[in-house]
Amino acid sequence: MGIEDFGGGQHEKADVLVVTTNDVPGYRVERVIGEVFGLTVRSRHIGSQIGAGLKSLVGGELKGLTKTLVETRNQAMERLVQQAKARGANAVLMFRFDVTEAADVGTEVCAYGTAVVIAPER
């Protein structure tokens, strides 16, 4: 089942619907596969760290770090979707991100949720 079967939206071309909710309106959970996650750890390069340190003195958005975090979150989510597909899921419920510092060398981002098989309600 492709995502086009879910009625469109921003995830139109994906194979796995990812939602933060416990269910998907109009669909029933046929099978719970279990927890899936995507994990990545990114370090900041020295130029970014120096720039962030200087910017923190005057305030404002740290654009380089923001860009890195967005890329990192996207990679973690891609890995989550790959794992869900590999396990036979067509949806992930209760999707969340967890972000932590990893031993003062980078940022760890974990995307996680519950892989399920859903089908339209009859």
Description:
By secondary structure, the chain is of the alpha+beta class. It has a single domain, classed as Hypothetical protein apc22750. Chain B (Translation Initiation Factor IF3, 2-Layer Sandwich). Helix content is 30%, strand content 37%. It has 2 helices and 4 strands, in the order ββααββ. It has a 4-stranded mixed β-sheet with strand order 1-3-4-2. β3 and β4 form a beta hairpin. The longest helix has 24 residues. The N terminus is likely disordered. Belongs to the UPF0145 family. This is UPF0145 protein BLA24_16620.
Query: Based on CA inertia axes, which overall geometry fits?
Result: elongated
Largest sheet: 4 strands, mixed
What count of helical segments does DSSP give? 2
Strand percentage, roughly? 35-45%
DSSP E strands, number: 4
Query: What is the CA-CA span between the terminal residues?
Result: 16 Å
- Specify the CATH homologous superfamily: Hypothetical protein apc22750. Chain B
Query: What's the alpha carbon Rg, rounded to whole Å?
Result: 18 Å
- The CATH topology assignment is Translation Initiation Factor IF3
Fraction in helix: 25-40%
CATH class: Alpha Beta
Q: What is the CATH-assigned architecture?
A: 2-Layer Sandwich
Strand order of the largest sheet: 1-3-4-2
Sketch the topology as an H/E string, one letter per element. Answer: EEHHEE
The residue-averaged pLDDT reads: 82
- Name the poorly predicted regions: 1-13
Helix/strand-derived class? alpha+beta
Number of domains: 1
Protein name: UPF0145 protein BLA24_16620
Family: Belongs to the UPF0145 family.
InterPro entries: UPF0145_dom_sf (IPR035439), UPF0145_YbjQ-like (IPR002765)
